[in-house]
């Protein structure tokens, strides 16, 4: 197992490659991403148990989306079975990854509670909107900063771990190790990738929405839907496909077993 060190420009190339993969079959890839989201949402309807179950299967479902991206790049067929087929690859390790990620996330939220008395933790668990007083006082800034800093190494360890466990049959520890090393030695392309994501999924749609609302203030609902739907059906699948592109470029297709 060997990870390549790539230039900073590779981060933008991942987004371009993701869009190229999406264009090969935009309807089917969008349907798979929607099925992924709906599966997680439906499970979360069940209190506690549903959230835990969703966390356990997310690594397997993400492998399914990576498989769909690889199939499209190779000109092979994809279907709903592609998404859920990822759950069958090294299942125990994928479930362990989901459980570990859940424990780490809850642990980090617990640590953040030491700085704000648990306001952010309660907000995240309840899903309720933050009240105006809390926002104005800035009570979420410090705990949010703590969460961001502590979650960064967790995300680095988790980024490639599911695909390494599924396609390379690595153990839990080795999958996490190779993932965090690959992210660490490629911090430059990941930085440019993050900036690209911010532009494509945040700044550009936000600016476009602002301009359209200024031009047509009476059509707020229609314009919001006009911007949101392409985000869901095009930008979302492109981003998931770009995850596969980052794996492909860093580890190489020849490494797949």
TrEMBL record:
Transmembrane segments: 34-58, 94-117, 138-160, 166-187, 194-216, 222-243
Matching InterPro entries: BPSS1780-like
Top-rank taxon: Bacteria
Alphabetic keyword roster: Membrane, Transmembrane, Transmembrane helix
The name this protein goes by in its record: Transmembrane protein
